Amino acid sequence: MKKQIQTELHAIQGHINRNFRRWFKRYPNLEGVHVGPKKVKGATLPACYAIVFHVSRKKQRPGKPVPKFLRVKKGDQDYMKVPTDVIQTGKMKLAGIKIGERTKNQHSSLVGTISFYFSTPNGVYLGSNMHVLAPQLLRSGQVFYDARKGDPPQSIRLFNDVIASTARLTVAVFNGIDFGFAKVDNPQVPEVIERIIKEVGAVKGVFGLTRANVHTAQLSFYGISSGRRPCAVTELGAVKNTNLQHIFLTNLIKLSRCTLDGDSGAPVFDQQNRLVGVIIGRDDDASYALHISDITRFFQSSNL
């Protein structure tokens, strides 16, 4: 039975991944979608999963109502009838925080998290959300940045109560994921910062969430507004709309609504202090995070 459920969930997630762009065009009120337990009058139906549509506001008589069931391909010739659900979530809100110190683009007032540092033969880099590192580029509609291909320089400030330094944005993307990397001008700064961060401690590797391990993972995040706070995963594979036309954030970790204003960008850890993901924002129903595996793939493709 467990294997059958996993197979069906995989098929439903694949159906979402193939069709969400068409749904966003069809339903103008749509803000997101995920696969989750079917609920009727607040009660969860046992062993019944649905394609859950997020809307900014529920309407008594929507112009284009979501069908009660969708036909989903399961295997080569087999199909299953999957129920739908509609929840009111409001719009996704992106905001910034810090962990131990703050970072921001010098041309922006938005302060955000440095999610982590890492070293390469070319120097020390920091990682954070693109909406923190280059918000003015997003406002102009630019969703990809690469300084090595001639994009105008973007200077980043790093600061806390003890020190201040600068970094230069190298590469960033806001499509599928929301992340970027900047080269630190003073490579000794991260060592100072690491000694200051007492609440979280040293990161001890990474841990990828899957449907097989998600229900046993005990997670927490660290944000300037919340401090260190536990967070529960409710679903995987969520898709959320953005303020930019035809741009979506995909394969998101859907969490209980555990973050406060300003907590976007916070690193998410398991009990062994392994990095699981990075908070990107919240709506009226839930908080959302990027998978560390998606960030790692972006890093590898960036050739830093």
Short key terms for the protein model shown above:
eight-stranded antiparallel sheet; eleven-stranded mixed sheet; Peptidase_S1_PA; alpha+beta; Trypsin-like peptidase; Peptidase_S1_PA_chymotrypsin; globular
Structure write-up:
- This protein is 17% helix and 43% strand.
- It is α+β, with helices and mostly antiparallel strands and 304 residues long.
- Among the domains are: 2-88, no CATH class; 102-199.
- The strands form 2 sheets. The chain has an 11-stranded mixed beta sheet with strand order 3-4-2-1-15-16-19-18-17-13-14. Strands 5, 6, 7, 8, 9, 10, 11 and 12 form an 8-stranded antiparallel beta sheet that branches.
- Strand 1 and strand 2 form a beta hairpin.
- It starts with a helix and ends with a helix.
Tell me the layout of helices and strands.
Layout: H1 2-26, E1 30-40, E2 43-55, E3 69-74, E4 78-88, E5 102-105, E6 112-113, E7 116-120, E8 123-128, H2 130-133, H3 135-139, E9 144-146, E10 155-159, E11 164-175, E12 177-184, H4 189-196, E13 219-223, E14 227-231, E15 233-241, E16 248-255, E17 267-270, E18 275-282, E19 287-291, H5 292-302
Parallel strand pairs: 2-4
Antiparallel strand pairs: 1-2, 1-15, 3-4, 5-6, 5-10, 7-8, 8-12, 9-11, 10-11, 11-12, 13-14, 13-17, 15-16, 16-19, 17-18, 18-19
